[in-house]
């Protein structure tokens, strides 16, 4: 699992500067033998305590302060003061939007298909006090809740639902996360399904199935077209039955279209020529074609 959790740098430049200045003054006074050793040691301890009272928090975070083990409040952003030894800063909590991803590997769907699903979660801490006091490691807790919830949701849906309704799966997962994280002062702003991986053998089978379905549809469309064409021909034949002149003209048009192509040859049964009175026309067309080739 990858996170973008930011590790707080506890180095305080203000406290360090104060400590350096006070320690320098004590060392200088001791070197000049103005103060005895006991006062020098006491001054060093006082310098350390005084410097530790000054703390700083960044603009996007809050410092959680305990006094003698009890929660006293939140400090920051900016410079704030604490009582040395008595007060303790247990954590600096980042209130910016964070992102984590988690996986559900080899999880069985409702139709017993093993899948690997990767989800991405955007979340933020809206109540620092609850996040600090209610759960020890909220980042890890969110990851485990997300992973467990994702596995449960996958087990309740078939593979086709996972592939087609990613938004619904993400919405159901966000609901599960909100129910668990809201008491901690944490809000899951959005969840997205990043990737769904299925076994290669199953992917190949699904590809073949899709190809077969496309071929089936193509054949159905072709058959429908043939049926429509036959209907048109049937209607056309009704017009030609009682109108032999129209049939003869149509035949002449077909022969003329065929002779337009270079090197084309038309074979027509003699019975068809006799029935349509095209014997003379066919001979003339053949003679014209031979004359063209000889020329």
What does this entry look like structurally?
The chain has three domains: 2-93, no CATH class; 98-198, Tetrahydropterin Synthase, Chain A (2-Layer Sandwich), CATH 3.30.479.30; 243-295. It has ten helices and nine strands. Mean pLDDT is 75; it is low at 1-7. It has 295 residues and is an alpha+beta fold. It is rod-shaped, with a radius of gyration of 44 Å. It has helices at 13-31, 37-53, 128-134, 138-155, 159-164, 166-181, 200-241, 244-259, 270-275, 279-294, and strands at residues 2-3, 54-57, 61-67, 70-75, 78-81, 87-94, 98-108, 114-125, 186-197. A hairpin with a 5-residue loop joins strand 7 and strand 8 (114-125). 55% of the residues lie in helices and 22% in strands. The chain has a four-stranded antiparallel beta sheet. It has a three-stranded antiparallel beta sheet with strand order 4-3-6, with helices on one face. Helix 1 runs antiparallel to helix 2 and helix 4 packs across helix 6 (166-181).
Rg (CA only): 44 Å
CATH architecture verdict of the largest domain: 2-Layer Sandwich
Percent of residues in helical segments?
55-70%
CATH superfamily of the largest domain: Band 7 domain
The run of helices and strands is EHHEEEEEEEHHHHEHHHH
Low-confidence stretches: 1-7
Which class do the helix and strand fractions yield? Answer: alpha+beta
Instruction: Please report which band the strand proportion falls in: under 5%, 5-15%, 15-25%, 25-35%, 35-45% or over 45%.
Output: 15-25%
In total, the number of domains comes to 3
Strand order of the largest sheet: 1-7-8-9
